[in-house]
Amino acid sequence: MGLIAGLASAQLACAPVLAGDAASPTLTVCYPDFPPFSYADPEGRPAGHLMTLFAEMTAITGDRFRPACVPARRLARWMLTGACTVAMVVRSLPGWRTGVLTSPTPIDRMVLRVYAIGHPPAVARATDLFGRRVIARLGFSYAGLRPLLSDAANGVEVVHEARTAVQGLRLLEAGRAELLLDYENNIDAVLARRPVAGLRSVVLKTVPIYLNISRQAPDPAGLMRRLVAAHRRVTAHR
């Protein structure tokens, strides 16, 4: 199911509602282009793990929303003016101290791992990738690490840009490179269907993601309470 269809079906699903209803104002959920967590697909439609999570949360609260993919700097400004109602990003961006309400705890986290076959990767920091052959994911910025991978002076040989986690794992199994860089949630979803013998990994970087609400929104504290309660229900059994 495409995400647009998924959002529609999630909003129409029969689920208990937490103090919101069809008359609730439409929220504008702004998200940066940051696959695999939030991005616009080739047809310009919203996609990614965080967008799916938010659809599940609003199916419970009854809040309606429209997504908007905007650059990070514009997102930061729009959250202060109220042009963006909600953003699921890091705890704070410049100028947000008084203008944005942030959830007390993360709603998700980005866990970038390095994978290898047969032995734990000897990688404790990004510079340990220097001089290594790696499989990367097409279009991923890796939380700011992509320039390090692309700089020829660092000697990182990206032997293939995998389009999917499945393809990345298959290339790793085939010995195309010694290391695979991918996010934990992507690989875990594949391993749930198809275990990979001897797969080992280490965490390279972890970034917590928070729910942020513009204080220009109607009753931002009430909206935060609804969404945080819905998030607890959505993630209770994961």
Characterise the protein shown here.
- The chain has 238 residues and is of the alpha/beta class.
- The protein is 30% helix and 26% strand.
- It contains 7 helices and 11 strands.
- Helix 4 (146-150) links the parallel strand 8 (133-137) and strand 9 (157-162).
- Helix 1 packs parallel to helix 2 and helix 2 packs across helix 7 (220-235).
- The radius of gyration is 19 Å and the shape is elongated.
Q: Which regions are unreliable across 5 or more consecutive residues at pLDDT < 50?
A: 1-22
Which secondary-structure class do the elements indicate? Answer: alpha/beta
- So, the CATH homologous superfamily of the largest domain? Periplasmic binding protein-like II
Mean residue pLDDT: 86
The CA-CA distance between the termini, in Å, is 21 Å
CATH hierarchy class name of the largest domain: Alpha Beta
Rg from C-alpha positions? 19 Å
- Using the 3D structure, state the CATH architecture of the largest domain: 3-Layer(aba) Sandwich
Number of domains: 2
Order of helices and strands: HEEEHEHEEEEHEHEHEH
Percent of residues in beta strands?
25-35%
Secondary structure topology:
Layout: H1 3-12, E1 27-31, E2 39-40, E3 46-47, H2 49-61, E4 65-69, H3 72-81, E5 86-89, E6 100-102, E7 108-117, E8 133-137, H4 146-150, E9 157-162, H5 165-173, E10 179-183, H6 184-191, E11 199-214, H7 220-235
Parallel strand pairs: 1-4, 1-5, 8-9, 8-10
Antiparallel strand pairs: 2-3, 5-11, 6-11, 7-10, 7-11
Short description, anyone?
With 238 residues, this protein is an alpha/beta fold.
Features:
disordered N terminus; 26% strand; 2 domains; 9-stranded mixed β-sheet; elongated; D-Maltodextrin-Binding Protein, domain 2; single chain; 238 residues; two-stranded antiparallel sheet; alpha/beta
